[in-house]
Design brief:
Lysosomal alpha-glucosidase-like; alpha-1,4-glucosidase activity; single chain; 8-stranded antiparallel β-sheet; Glyco_hydro_31_N_dom; 15 strands; about 40% strand; globular; Gal_mutarotase_sf_dom; mainly beta; 7-stranded antiparallel β-sheet; carbohydrate binding
Length: about 290
């Protein structure tokens, strides 16, 4: 009752196709999950976005589900971030120029996939029970090493301890910084060391989720809605991977000069009279508020 048996096959491959731009799978559910409203038919798409960015999208084949937008998707034609090597109408590169190798099962086999560098080093390999229901999704993949960073925003050590079980919760809340607690932002992206260098994996999903790092080493993603939409990013260095991530989601805006320095908190004024006195003091000093 507490784990998936080794022969568990929740979905099998109904159709598989590959071309120079990527690959596509159609899955059919074989074993329902214990959660309500399982998705019976699933579409899995792999697309080479550039030589060093791979897009993996896992969606309901029969009906649309919630997807947030990205900076790169909202930009007008001709002004794409530099990570995209082609225009919007033909965005993507061919398999020959991409630095990825996609390994897929054959028709009729259980659903899984493996992503490697073209030189052979492992990046992602799915493992365990794949679940796709209306309000609970789960996908696990093996990690190439125990060197893992990211999955913020949390106040704790920079490196995630992949030698033991660690759960990170993504659900923004206005909470004072506290050890091992979810805070103001959600960045479901990690940076990892593989045998060929550094890479990052970003899950583009705005729902609440738990991310479980386990000592295999492996990682399990558990959002409570939306879809699985991964970006796998290859960089020559950690900074290079993070630059690719910033091109996807956008960078921090430049604050106005008057906003730099000390700030007023929104709480702890005690009474309405104290709050009003603070406002009047700010206006008298000519400080924007």
């Amino acid at each position: 009752m507490c784990y998936f048996p080794t022969d568990y096959a929740s979905y099998t491959i109904r159709d598989v196709s590959k071309n120079q731009k990527g690959a596509q799978l159609i899955l059919t559910m074989q074993l329902p999950s214990p959660y309500p409203r399982n998705v019976h038919n699933v579409l899995v798409q792999f697309q080479y976005m550039s030589e060093s960015v791979l897009n993996i999208k896992i969606v309901d084949y029969d009906r649309p589900r919630w997807e947030p937008s990205l900076l790169s998707e909202a930009m007008p034609s001709g002004s794409e971030p530099p990570m995209w090597s082609t225009s919007r109408t033909s965005r993507g590169v061919s398999e020959n120029s991409a630095n990825f190798e996609i390994t897929l099962p054959s028709k009729g086999e259980p659903f899984n996939f493996k992503i490697s560098r073209k030189s052979g080093e492992l990046l992602m390999e799915t493992a365990g029970g794949f679940t796709f229901s209306d309000q609970f999704l789960q996908l696990s993949s093996l990690l190439p090493s125990h060197l893992l960073y990211g999955l913020g925003e949390h106040r704790q050590g920079l490196m995630i301890n992949a030698s033991s079980w660690t759960t990170r919760t993504m659900w923004n809340r206005d909470h004072p910084p506290k050890e091992k607690a979810n805070l103001y932002g959600s960045h479901p992206v990690y940076l990892s060391k593989d045998a060929g260098g550094w890479h990052g994996v970003f899950l583009h999903n705005s729902n609440a989720m738990d991310i479980v790092v386990q000592p295999a080493p492996a990682i399990t993603w558990r959002p409570i809605g939306g879809i699985f939409h991964f970006y796998v990013m290859l960089g020559h260095s950690p900074a290079g991977v993070m630059a690719q991530y910033a091109q996807l989601v956008g960078t921090t805006f430049l604050p106005p000069f008057w906003a730099l320095g000390f700030h007023l908190c929104w709480q702890n004024y005690g009474t309405a009279a104290n709050t009003l006195a603070t406002v009047e003091r700010m206006r008298k000093l000519g400080i924007p508020q």
